[in-house]
Amino acid sequence: MTALAILVKEMGISVTGSDIAEEFPTDATLKRFNIKYFIGFDPIHIKYKPDLVIYTGAHQGRKNIEVQTSIKIGIPILSHGEALGFFMKEKFQICVAGSHGKTTTSAMIAFSLIQLNEDPSFAIGCGEILGLHTSGHFGKSKYFVAEADEYITDPTGDRTPRFLWQTPQILVITNIDFDHPDAYKDITQVQEAFIHLTKKVTQGGHIIINLDDHASQEIINQISVPVVTYGMSKQANYQTKNIHFENNLTKFEVWQNNQKLSDFNIKAVGAHNAMNATSVIVALKLLGFSVENIKKVLALFSGTKRRFEYIGQKNDKLLYDDYAHHPTEIKATLKGIREFFPNKRIVVIFQPHTYSRTAKLLEEFGRSFNFADTVIITDIYVSAREKPILGISGKLLTDIVKKQNKQTVFIPNEELVLKYLSQETRANDLILTMGAGDIYSWIPKILNIL
Description:
The strands form four sheets. This protein has a ten-stranded mixed sheet, with helices on both faces. A six-stranded mixed sheet has the order 15-16-20-17-18-19, sandwiched between helices. The chain has a two-stranded parallel sheet with strand order 1-2. The protein starts with a helix and ends with a helix. The chain has 15 helices and 20 strands. It is α/β, with parallel strands linked by helices. The longest helix has 16 residues, at 271-286. It folds into three domains: 2-80, Rossmann fold (3-Layer(aba) Sandwich), CATH 3.40.50.720; 90-298, UDP-N-acetylmuramoyl-L-alanine:D-glutamate ligase (3-Layer(aba) Sandwich), CATH 3.40.1190.10; 309-449, Protein-Tyrosine Phosphatase, Chain A (Alpha-Beta Complex). Helix 5 crosses helix 8 and helix 8 (271-286) crosses helix 9 (291-298).
């Protein structure tokens, strides 16, 4: 919602809003753009009769008291997914879908277009794109870059996948995974949503798809518009080769139809980010930019907030933060960190996010922490959209992970985690906070006690 609020304000429209009192990574960005909001939800916040009310699926969605008040007095309402699609209309839409990697990939595209002297509009689901100091922008060029999210529009009523409000000219699919058990019953249902999305691509458009991802590969024969594939597979139109790590850079080659395009260097950690970057290279080539210029701008990209974000260093201990909350993301991130920092002791503090995801993916979580030296698992963060599930807990998850990584401990809360870190961490440690809940709010205290 922050990215959209910034974009709308830059269009010259007055913007305000309401939210809970909890601290969020987006707070500083909203403050920078002087976007003020109320704490809590109350009908009185609608008394000045805004022209439009946009709501998210969180905090009761359409049933939220402010949304219901708006309906009663005749103020138009739109869900966030609908509103994003509305403001993207009349633009050349570059949409990045995928269960994992869509934030980094869409941020890479937006950042690259700016460095290539375009002025794209963009709405990216992060605190900010590093170097741009924002997650949203209303630009003068024809391009609009956005994440295309498969989660449902409103869990309280509208189960339309959010990305179906968009009409891409270029659609990137990074992967397809079972990430939202509260929205989909299985991976097949997720694939069906993505197939529906491919039918929204406009005439003359292109779909860029990861051929290494089995679930994505399975839907290709059901796509009716031109498909360009990428991946490490020899069958990919654009093949990523020779991924290696040197001087704090991820380095790789990209080949097109068995001819080498170039060597590329990115600051983002891990083979998975080399793959994300390859999809960006394909997208920018389709837009007509030269390989040499693409290579230059990608090398400048420093990432986004909460995607292996460097926090600080103290007493020869490094502190990073990451949003990973699904087993696939966790494993890829930790593998990348291990390859980047082979001599560091990696200490992970993982806050599980949602009972439904934890329950459905217990065994997968158990196999996802093998690249860490020490794993701390906390209580499960309770999402506003669900209730606890009897028997599912951080302690249960700890027992599952411990079968694969013996150096796993259950430490339920912030206070006890801080105590543990103050006593058990040492020089040459790399400490990583990880999760989609509120663990980011623990970071100042963690850095203080290191």
